[in-house]
Write a structure and sequence with these properties.
Shape: globular
Number of domains: 2
Number of helices: 11
CATH superfamily of the largest domain: Alpha/Beta hydrolase fold, catalytic domain
Strand order of the largest sheet: 2-1-3-4-8-9
CATH topology of the largest domain: Rossmann fold
CATH architecture of the largest domain: 3-Layer(aba) Sandwich
Radius of gyration: 17 Å
Helix content: 25-40%
Largest sheet: 6 strands, parallel
């Protein structure tokens, strides 16, 4: 399924980007909602560490459940089961592939009061990660740094049943995935990445929770994994409140204050 990128997305890319919002700008109206952070592929819960520290310092209860990275047929069900154990209002945050997971996991849970996407996929019903990742870029824009010959981008680890785990090659990871991180940090992240199953890419999304739950979206303007034009397309389609920051795919590491500011903005709307 190929998507046509609206011209307004191109215009937003060309326009100057808003580079963040104030940290902790939500009014303190009592007990804060819980925040659940869902990591994406080639990462783990530690990728949220700087965001967690900021949130906890300002009084949020924060959860960072592991994302199995097996595909939309099972990962959202696991996260949904975790969410069912939390009482009270919840802000659900997803990074990268984690955005597709929260899009599905939030459906039908009345406690999920806001969705926050961070450099993330936000698929529509019936749409797969593969569909979104293979969308041709608009004129003058670049495709994902993970596109092209997969043998030049990934290392493959065979799994039982014929599936394979995909690891980003250590030589590709720093300039592609972590292009605003110090090289020493990027190489550590490359060595500690968690793989995603190849079979995850064609699995279709279920009901899109962003159609009924208010959404916020942080766009990293130098993201090379999910390019800004693709992020803006998904954010606009979801009717999300959009903030753009100069950051790579790992904006939660390079710009944690902007991520926290967006979560605060979502929290300010919950009464």
């Amino acid at each position: 399924m190929k998507k046509i990128i609206p011209l307004v997305v191109v215009a937003l890319i060309i326009a100057p980007a808003f580079v963040g919002i104030a940290e902790s700008n939500a009014a303190d109206t009592g007990v804060k909602p819980s925040v659940v952070l869902v990591h994406g592929a080639w990462a783990d819960g530690s990728s949220w560490s700087r965001v967690v520290a900021h949130l906890q310092a300002t009084g949020y209860t924060v959860y960072v459940p592991p994302n199995p990275l097996r595909g939309l047929a099972s990962d959202p069900a696991y996260v949904a089961s975790f969410l069912a154990t939390i009482s009270g209002p919840v802000i659900l945050v997803g990074h990268s592939y984690g955005g597709a997971v929260i899009t599905n996991a939030a459906a039908g849970n009345p406690n999920i009061r806001a969705l926050v996407f961070v450099d993330a996929f936000a698929p529509d019903e019936g749409e797969s990660i593969g569909d979104l990742a293979s969308t041709p870029p608009p004129p003058g824009q670049s495709a994902s740094c993970l596109a092209g010959d997969p043998t030049q981008v990934f290392n493959f680890v065979p799994l039982a049943g014929g599936d394979v785990d995909l690891y980003i090659k250590p030589s590709v990871f720093p300039s592609c995935f972590a292009n605003d991180q110090p090289l020493t940090q990027a190489t550590v992240l490359a060595s500690s990445q968690r793989p995603i199953a190849f079979s995850a890419f064609p699995q279709p999304s279920g009901v899109a929770a962003w159609k009924t739950i208010p959404s916020w979206y942080l766009v990293g303007t130098i993201d090379r994994v999910i390019p800004p034009w693709a992020q803006l397309f998904m954010a606009q389609r979801a009717g999300a409140t959009i903030v753009q920051v100069r950051a790579s795919h790992l904006s939660m590491l390079s710009r944690p204050e902007a991520v926290v500011g967006l979560i605060d903005a979502a929290a300010a709307t919950i009464h």
